[in-house]
Sequence to fold (588 residues):
Amino acid sequence: MTGPAHPQDPPPATSPRPEEQALAAGWTWWGRVALMGAWVGVAVVHLVSAPERRSLVWNLGYLLIEALACASLGYRAWRSDRKERLAWQLLWASTLLDVINLSLWIPPSLGHPLAWASDLPKLLSLGTGLLVLAAVLSFPRGSSRGGGGRRRVLDGLLFAASVLFLLWVVGVHGALRTANPDLSLRVLVAYLNAALMGGGLVYMTSSRPHQFRGPLGWLGASALAWLVVLSGWAMAGLPPVPQTQWWWPLVGGIPLFQGLAAWSPTPEEVPAAEETRGMFTRLIPYLPVVGALAVMAVLILRAPLYLVRGASGIFLVMVALLLLRQVQAVEDLESARRTLEDRVHDRTRVLEQAQHTLIRTERMNALAMMGAGLAHDLNNLLGAVKSSADLAVMNLEEGVAPGPSELNRIAMAADRAALLTRRLMEFARREEEALQPVDLGRELRSMEVTLRLLIPRAVNLVIDVPLEDALIVKSSTLRLEQMMVNLVANARDAMPTGGHLGIQVTRGGAGRAHALIEVIDSGTGMTPEVLARIFDPFYTTKEPGKGTGLGLSSLKAMVEESGGSLGVESEPGLGTRFRILLPLVSPR
Fold:
């Protein structure tokens, strides 16, 4: 049993039922078969017909294919959701104009020219191209970051200008051969439609290539068929009745692919961060540019001067767009650099905060361990105080006054307890200190009491520091104390039954220009696998709840921040040796 629907969930009615999905799949199959069958049938009839009848046969057959495409696009517009409905309605309107346009060509094919509509087919063709371009631009584009919108506009305009240049050069060649000025407007409209449709598709897909897997891919195939037909028409000399040519059935690919787009599912949206673009996808807007540059070079070397002048206008527009695209690329690069710098700065700040958190976490962990050791020592001291006090009471009952030695034992135990408590409070209250020159030997000697709070009596602690040779390093009392607490605590855990723990301070490193701190224990040691990961954050070999895995990683960070280095040597059963090298500095 299901509960009430979440208020933000879409209503159940928006999800098609299984029978509706099956019906839609059936319509898709029949729609594709009808379009492909019509195009193949019309092409075959056109090829086997006599040349004088091909114009009428093709106009009727093309009208059939266009009508099927119009019906397919109308069905898709009716079935599509609100985000894509406008695009499909515009495509349907464009094919409807094509149906009307083709209907006007049938009477002249039958010998009944329409004098009143001589220029109407050209205007309808221009309207068809504009509607297709508007439809392509009406599909959902997704979000663009930074200069993505301007970049896509320039890519689309650059592609359209270079394609128009190539078609114009090829078309001029054919027009010069035919010398038929009546075709000028018709050719210009066809060229503009093809170039603008290609530019619109590049604008929509240059940054989102996954959209080629859906309807836009079929519309791209339609634009390619358009370009192929226009190129063939121009290379054939722009014949006024191209329907008689054997290759003319390729024109049927234009409505065929538009109709197949109507039966193609919309691809799932891919986040921009996960979008992958291959080299070919990046080069699509520039492929016709390369061709245009090569053609312009040939024109300059071999073509007549008037032909070069005619092509130079479009070529200059293409060059200007290319320069603007490069300026946009420089702006994108600068924006990416600033974004990367900001991200690095933010990431560095977060890492610094995390490092401080790690240090504080380890400090609290050490404080808890020191508190446990303090409780043990205080219990022993209180036992000594109570024993001395009981002895003094017994002596008083017997009429013997307490001697100074007995009272001194009580005072010494109290002083010892006060010292331990004061050192623990100092450790807990100490805040981060600025790095400055400190005497390493004096600092280690002063923290011996604190370190002994961390270890049981079964561990023998020996601190060996030079008495006369002052080793000055750049650090702080807090950092040195944190380093030693981490290493001593780890050594204690490695010696559960007791052992020897030594801390030695000498000169070392290259030229003896460093202070060398060695912490040596006789514990269980480490295997090579553990040794390889010992400085990884959150890595620990302790039982859950007994270690954070942050001690040695924070220790390594503190040592390296002071300009030093941290090394470790260990073998199973032979103990562990940590070596800290800190550079020596001059005292103030």
